[in-house]
Design goal:
Length: about 100
Amino acid sequence: MKSMRFGRSTSAVALRVAGEHVQRAAQRLSVWREKQTNADDCYVRAGHEAVAAIENAIIELQNARWSLKGEINDDRIEREVRIEEFLTRERNGALDGADREQSA
């Protein structure tokens, strides 16, 4: 039984994307901290972009969290189903064995 809520790689993808946002935030934060401004870049814009990148990283981390929680829950359900199937087979096998002993 495969996970139906999320693909198994959804949380990994969200974490990778969050990491990219964190790297972008760090890069833009360094421009802000150094107050670098040139023809192609402005430190004020860099500060705003750092904040946006941090917010995007938080969103992706939340996505990864929810995805992983879903995967863990799906796995728990899959294990419960396998255990119940195993116990049912064992019970049926034990009953079949008892019936054979009585008829012998």
